[in-house]
Structure formats: C-alpha cells, structure tokens
Amino acid sequence: AKERTLSIIKPDATQRNITGKIIDRLENAGLRVVAQKRLKLTKEQAEGFYAVHKERPFFNDLVSFMTSGPVVVQVLEGDDAVAKNREVMGATNPADAAPGTIRADFAESIEANSVHGSDAPETAEQEIAFFFKDDEIVG
Ligand code: CMP
C-alpha cells in the first residue's frame, strides 16, 4: 500500500555534494520525493529528533555530527516506502551494507552513514510531523 517515510541526507553527504546521487537511488527504487528542505539542525532539534537514543554511548557524537553541516530532510512516498527505503539505504554500518546500497557505496562510517530513514510506519508518522506541516507535503 502507498506509504510515507522520513529520509534525511546527512552532513557527510551534503559536504561531499552527493545529494543528487542519493536522490537518484531513491527515485530509481520507486520512491517519490513529496516534500524536501535543506536546513542546518540546531542542537535542540537533533537531540529531539534522536531522543530515543539519548541513553546510548554514541548520542553526543551523533548530535554533534548531525549539527556539523546542512542536512536535506525529505518525505518519500511509495508502495511500502518504509521498507523500500531501508532496503535501498542498506545496513546502518556501511561495513555490513549490501553491495549496491546507498550506504555501501557512499557512507564513510557508522556515524557518517549518509542517510537516515524511519524504521517503521509509526515512527515515520512521528518523524514526518517533526519536520513538516501537512501543507508542505505535496503528493
Ligand atoms: P540513524 O538511522 O540516523 O539512527 C541513529 C544513528 O546513530 C545511526 O543512523 C548511526 O548513524 C548513528 N550511530 C553512531 N554510532 C552508532 C552505533 N555504534 N550503533 C548504532 N548507530 C550508531
């Protein structure tokens, strides 16, 4: 069924000017960009977005990385968008990511791993609402 997911192109990718290459992979997988903006996250935004990870040892590094440069946040739409996006991203750690996935081909490390994607439809809804108003999403 038609579904939406939240995608973030991370600072390591904006820094290397490869946002277009990443969007090409998403579109080729049948996902449609129905909302998009480029912004520099504040510390508060990054902490809020990743609140679920706040007890993790990597939390502070994650927040500083995610605020180190611009990100591109997107709403992707398509059949089984959450799962499809995760498939095209590949595993969190690029060392474990399948050949041909975004992270296998572009990510630098488990932290600088080029993209984020929602992990389930329920989280997708929350993550989309974190960044976008309804009228900013045009399907
Ligand atoms: P993301 O999908 O954005 O969600 C949380 C992020 O934490 C994850 O991608 C990784 O980039 C980052 N991260 C950094 N270190 C780790 C780690 N040791 N285990 C899991 N995620 C990590």
List keywords for this structure.
139 residues; alpha+beta; 4-stranded antiparallel β-sheet; 7 helices; 4 strands; binds adenosine-3',5'-cyclic-monophosphate; metal-binding
Walk me through the structure.
With 139 residues, the protein is α+β, with helices and mostly antiparallel strands. Helix content is 40%, strand content 20%. The protein is built from seven helices and four strands. The model has no long low-confidence stretch (mean pLDDT 98). The structure holds adenosine-3',5'-cyclic-monophosphate (CMP).
In terms of topology, how is this protein built?
Layout: E1 2-9, H1 11-15, H2 19-28, E2 32-39, H3 43-49, H4 59-66, E3 71-79, H5 81-89, H6 102-106, E4 115-117, H7 121-131
Antiparallel strand pairs: 1-3, 1-4, 2-3
- Major sheet characteristics: 4 strands, antiparallel
Bulk shape: globular
Q: Beta-strand percentage?
A: 15-25%
Which ions and ligands are bound to the chains?
adenosine-3',5'-cyclic-monophosphate
Brief digest:
The protein is an alpha+beta fold and 139 residues long. It is 40% helix and 20% strand.
